[in-house]
Structures are given as C-alpha cells and as structure tokens.
Amino acid sequence: MQLTRAQVQQGYLLSGIPKDKLSGLAEHHYLVTFIGWQLANYLKKTGAKLDI
C-alpha cells in the first residue's frame, strides 16, 4: 500500500508533466473507486439491479 502512495502515474510523467505536479496511484485509485460508487448509487436509484 505504501508503494502506491509514492508511485506516480507513468503516462503523465512520460508526457512531460513534472513529477511534483502528479498524483500518486493511491489517490487515483481512491478517486476512481469513489466515482464508480457514486455511479452505482445513481444507477440503482434509476432501477438498475446492482449489489453495491
């Protein structure tokens, strides 16, 4: 887990964005999980059968 906090997203690094301006993998995973959870809640409210 500690490794993902310090490891940057390589695609952005390769595009020339300075390393100190990038988020770590842990931050990225948290954000993607949160967005997925919000989307699942929305779809469930519209009638989708999901096991969140």
Tally of separate domains:
1
Shape: elongated
Number of strands: 0
Strand content: under 5%
- Give Rg in angstroms: 15 Å
**Which ranges are low-confidence, i.e. pLDDT below 50, for 5 or more consecutive residues?**
none
Overall mean pLDDT stands at 86
Task: Indicate the structural class.
Answer: mainly alpha
How is the secondary structure organized here?
Layout: H1 2-6, H2 10-14, H3 25-45
What does this structure look like?
The protein is mainly alpha-helical and 52 residues long. The chain has one domain. The protein is elongated.
Features:
about 50 residues, mainly alpha, 3 helices
How would you summarize this macromolecular structure in one to three sentences?
60% of the residues lie in helices and 0% in strands. With 52 residues, it is mainly α.
